[in-house]
Design a protein that fits this description.
Layout lengths: L7 H4 L6 E5 L6 H8 L4 E5 L3 H9 L1 H4 L6 E5 L7 H14 L8 E6 L2 H7 L8 E5 L5 H6 L6 H7 L3 H5 L5 H21 L4 H13 L3 E2 L2 H8 L3 H13 L3 E4 L15 E4 L2 H8 L4 H5 L4 H19 L5 E6 L5 E7 L5 E6 L3 H6 L7 H4 L4 E5 L10 E5 H11 L2
Parallel strand pairs: 1-4, 1-5, 2-3, 3-4, 11-12, 12-13
Antiparallel strand pairs: 6-8, 7-8, 9-10, 10-11
Length: 395
């Protein structure tokens, strides 16, 4: 089943000879590129051990192809190819250009290995893209289920939505075992594996919350410098994100600690131990998980459409808080609050003690189902309306 991806909007904006698409495993990168390729493209997967060995031992021979477009899947497994790609592009640019410009589409799911391999710069030769799992807007447009059980247990993983017979619990258990417990651990050279996996689950329990590393140290038994390193690794691998607090000269009472969000609500739910939606929806974790879902929708919309929105949150020392303050490239600002129920969304008002910082900024409240606007100054949205609304209001 093909699911139309909003990422196509960003892809069409760029045309340098190399295009590198990074993103988590199983997010749909390869499927997207295969859809764009035709019979004139050479598709080379470096997950294939034979292909990888040739790429590592003889990059020049490996890249000698008659096709004008070469697609290299999981290129971080053979970083030796990158200098050869650079050489070929530079050679063509200095030639009489009687042949078509070489074109290379690359995918990578391990950012740590990519960082090591990209020391040989492709600056001026490559466009870089970040690819995400499915957004709520994409699921709705494809006519796929976006009920709470589907969204919270499956997250945005395309295969789980395209093949409803699959067990989300088993699929995500396998994903955690393969990507988190093996791929990340081995790539980053983590020695304290048991402590790392315990920390990962503790971080999942803190999604949508302010990250207090000292508290995490007490619960995990791991020292703060190590925790900071591990959190940085999970960020680089696009597993989670840290949202920085908004800073303003108008208020010196705003907190300075970042908030933590997992980049997929299904993965966070599974790591928290949820296998069924009913108990999850009755649990205290529902609010932070829904806020996480709203964050990922904002993040995916920005990434898919090539927007450089600044995402922050606002909280003072009296614990008055606004979930998201978004700022577009042209300086346009928007307050977004995430509330699971329509009743909570309809009753929400900007905290009075934050007026000095946020007064005059347009406000929107997103809930799962949305609702009617009780006032003219606050826009109420369903989760499915959030992405299109942001594209309309922010640059």
């Amino acid at each position: 089943m093909w699911i139309e991806r909003d990422f196509a909007a960003c892809w069409r904006q760029h045309s340098l000879p190399v295009r590198l698409v990074t993103g988590p495993r199983q997010s749909g990168k390869s499927t997207f590129l295969r859809r764009l390729c035709d019979h004139k493209a050479a598709w080379l997967s470096l997950d294939d051990l034979h292909q990888r060995e040739l790429a590592q031992t003889d990059p020049r021979l490996f890249l000698t192809r008659p096709e004008p477009l070469v697609v290299l899947d999981e290129v971080q497994l053979a970083p030796q190819l990158l200098p050869e790609i650079k050489r070929r592009i530079d050679e063509w640019r200095m030639s009489e250009r009687t042949t078509p410009q070489p074109a290379y589409w690359l995918t990578g799911s391990n950012q740590i290995l990519l960082d090591r391999g990209l020391k040989e710069s492709l600056a001026g030769r490559a466009n870089y893209f970040s690819f995400s799992p499915l957004s709520i807007a994409e699921l709705q447009r494809a006519g796929l289920e976006i009920s709470p059980p589907s969204v919270f247990l499956k997250g945005g993983w395309p295969q789980l939505h395209a093949e409803p017979e699959l067990s989300p619990v088993q699929y995500l258990n396998d994903y955690i075992s393969t990507v988190v417990e093996k791929d990340i651990v081995s790539t980053a050279g983590i020695q304290k594996v048991r402590e790392f996996l315990k920390t990962v689950r503790l971080l999942a329990a803190r999604t949508g919350q302010i990250l207090v590393v000292s508290n995490l140290t007490q619960d995990s038994g791991v020292k703060q410098p190590t925790l900071h390193d591990w959190i940085g690794i999970l960020e680089r691998m696009q597993v989670l994100s840290l949202v920085e607090p908004y800073s303003s000269s108008l208020s010196k009472r705003l907190v300075r600690t970042p908030k933590l969000y997992w980049n997929d609500v299904g993965l966070a739910s599974r790591l928290q131990g949820w296998g069924e939606a009913d108990p999850l929806i009755l649990s205290p974790q529902l609010g932070p998980l829904f806020e996480t879902l709203a964050f990922t929708e904002i993040q995916k919309t920005a990434s898919n459409y090539g927007k450089s929105w600044r995402i922050s949150y606002v909280r003072n020392k009296e614990q008055d808080e606004v979930d998201f303050l978004l700022e577009g490239a042209n300086g346009t600002k928007l307050v977004v609050e995430a509330k699971w129920s329509s009743a909570e969304a309809l009753s929400w008002r900007l905290p009075r003690r934050l007026l000095s910082v946020l007064e005059g900024i347009p406000q929107a409240v997103v809930s799962y189902l949305g609702g009617l606007n009780p006032t003219s100054d606050i826009r109420h949205l369903s989760l499915t309306e959030l992405g299109p609304f942001l594209l309309e209001r922010l640059d």
